[in-house]
Amino acid sequence: MPYAIRKNREIRKQDAPVNTGFVVLEKKNSGTIILYNEDSSVWKTFLLDDYTGLAALDPFILKPEDVLIAFELTGKKGNFYKVIVDKEKKLAKYIKVSDRNFKFKTVPEYIMHVFSVRL
Protein backbone atom coordinates (compact mmCIF):
# COMPACT_ATOMS: atom_id res chain seq x y z
CA MET A 1 0.00 0.00 0.00
CA PRO A 2 1.67 3.25 -1.10
CA TYR A 3 0.03 5.42 1.57
CA ALA A 4 -0.41 5.00 5.28
CA ILE A 5 -2.93 6.77 7.50
CA ARG A 6 -1.69 7.54 10.98
CA LYS A 7 -3.92 7.68 14.06
CA ASN A 8 -4.12 11.48 13.85
CA ARG A 9 -5.49 11.13 10.26
CA GLU A 10 -2.29 12.47 8.73
CA ILE A 11 -1.58 10.78 5.43
CA ARG A 12 2.04 10.29 4.48
CA LYS A 13 3.55 9.12 1.24
CA GLN A 14 5.44 5.80 1.23
CA ASP A 15 7.24 5.27 -2.06
CA ALA A 16 4.16 6.00 -4.16
CA PRO A 17 4.70 6.14 -7.91
CA VAL A 18 4.67 9.62 -9.44
CA ASN A 19 1.38 8.97 -11.25
CA THR A 20 -0.52 7.45 -8.33
CA GLY A 21 -4.01 8.85 -8.14
CA PHE A 22 -7.39 9.00 -9.78
CA VAL A 23 -9.11 10.90 -12.55
CA VAL A 24 -12.51 11.71 -11.08
CA LEU A 25 -15.67 13.00 -12.71
CA GLU A 26 -16.25 16.51 -11.36
CA LYS A 27 -19.24 17.71 -13.38
CA LYS A 28 -22.37 16.12 -11.98
CA ASN A 29 -24.79 17.42 -14.61
CA SER A 30 -25.63 16.01 -18.01
CA GLY A 31 -22.79 15.92 -20.46
CA THR A 32 -20.52 13.67 -22.44
CA ILE A 33 -17.56 11.53 -21.47
CA ILE A 34 -15.06 10.91 -24.25
CA LEU A 35 -12.44 8.18 -23.90
CA TYR A 36 -9.57 7.96 -26.38
CA ASN A 37 -7.25 5.32 -27.80
CA GLU A 38 -3.48 5.65 -27.52
CA ASP A 39 -3.35 7.20 -31.02
CA SER A 40 -5.76 9.99 -29.86
CA SER A 41 -8.70 8.62 -31.85
CA VAL A 42 -12.04 8.41 -30.03
CA TRP A 43 -12.61 4.99 -28.45
CA LYS A 44 -16.08 5.56 -26.98
CA THR A 45 -18.39 8.42 -26.11
CA PHE A 46 -20.85 8.18 -23.21
CA LEU A 47 -23.71 10.40 -22.11
CA LEU A 48 -23.69 10.92 -18.35
CA ASP A 49 -27.41 10.26 -18.14
CA ASP A 50 -27.15 6.99 -20.14
CA TYR A 51 -26.70 4.41 -17.39
CA THR A 52 -26.72 1.46 -19.79
CA GLY A 53 -23.80 2.87 -21.76
CA LEU A 54 -21.79 3.58 -18.62
CA ALA A 55 -22.40 0.00 -17.44
CA ALA A 56 -19.99 -1.12 -20.18
CA LEU A 57 -17.17 0.38 -18.09
CA ASP A 58 -15.54 -1.22 -15.07
CA PRO A 59 -13.38 1.56 -13.59
CA PHE A 60 -12.16 1.93 -10.01
CA ILE A 61 -15.54 3.41 -8.96
CA LEU A 62 -18.73 3.51 -11.03
CA LYS A 63 -22.06 4.50 -9.52
CA PRO A 64 -24.01 5.99 -12.43
CA GLU A 65 -27.10 6.61 -10.31
CA ASP A 66 -24.98 9.02 -8.21
CA VAL A 67 -22.91 10.18 -11.19
CA LEU A 68 -19.77 8.99 -9.43
CA ILE A 69 -16.96 7.81 -11.67
CA ALA A 70 -13.28 7.47 -10.75
CA PHE A 71 -10.63 5.99 -13.02
CA GLU A 72 -7.32 4.73 -11.67
CA LEU A 73 -4.47 6.75 -13.19
CA THR A 74 -1.58 4.71 -14.57
CA GLY A 75 0.35 7.46 -16.31
CA LYS A 76 0.32 10.59 -18.36
CA LYS A 77 1.17 10.78 -22.05
CA GLY A 78 1.37 14.24 -23.55
CA ASN A 79 -1.98 15.94 -22.98
CA PHE A 80 -3.72 12.75 -21.89
CA TYR A 81 -4.20 10.85 -18.66
CA LYS A 82 -3.82 7.09 -19.09
CA VAL A 83 -6.55 5.42 -17.03
CA ILE A 84 -7.91 1.93 -16.42
CA VAL A 85 -11.45 1.71 -17.84
CA ASP A 86 -11.89 -2.02 -17.20
CA LYS A 87 -10.06 -3.34 -14.15
CA GLU A 88 -10.87 -7.00 -14.90
CA LYS A 89 -9.40 -6.84 -18.40
CA LYS A 90 -6.72 -4.29 -17.40
CA LEU A 91 -7.93 -2.18 -20.34
CA ALA A 92 -6.35 1.26 -20.45
CA LYS A 93 -7.68 4.26 -22.38
CA TYR A 94 -7.06 7.99 -22.29
CA ILE A 95 -8.81 11.13 -21.06
CA LYS A 96 -7.71 14.59 -22.17
CA VAL A 97 -6.06 16.59 -19.40
CA SER A 98 -8.07 19.59 -20.64
CA ASP A 99 -11.43 17.78 -20.22
CA ARG A 100 -13.29 19.95 -17.70
CA ASN A 101 -15.55 17.06 -16.69
CA PHE A 102 -12.62 15.37 -14.94
CA LYS A 103 -10.05 16.31 -12.33
CA PHE A 104 -6.90 14.51 -11.22
CA LYS A 105 -6.79 13.74 -7.49
CA THR A 106 -3.95 12.21 -5.55
CA VAL A 107 -4.74 9.23 -3.34
CA PRO A 108 -4.87 11.38 -0.16
CA GLU A 109 -7.10 13.99 -1.86
CA TYR A 110 -9.45 11.28 -3.06
CA ILE A 111 -9.59 9.50 0.31
CA MET A 112 -10.38 12.72 2.15
CA HIS A 113 -13.38 13.47 -0.11
CA VAL A 114 -15.17 10.14 -0.38
CA PHE A 115 -17.71 8.60 1.95
CA SER A 116 -15.91 5.24 2.13
CA VAL A 117 -12.82 3.61 0.70
CA ARG A 118 -12.88 0.25 -1.06
CA LEU A 119 -9.63 -1.68 -0.54
Commentary on this structure:
The chain is mainly β and 119 residues long. 8% of the residues lie in helices and 43% in strands. The protein is built from two helices and ten strands, in the order βββββαβββββα. The strands form three sheets. Strands 3, 6, 7, 8, 9 and 10 form a six-stranded antiparallel beta sheet that branches. β7 (68-77) and β8 (80-86) form a beta hairpin. The protein starts with a strand and ends in a 7-residue tail after the last helix. The relative contact order is 0.24.
Summarize the structure.
This protein has 119 residues and is mainly β. The chain is built from two helices and ten strands, in the order βββββαβββββα. The longest helix is centred in the last third of the chain and has 6 residues, at 107-112.
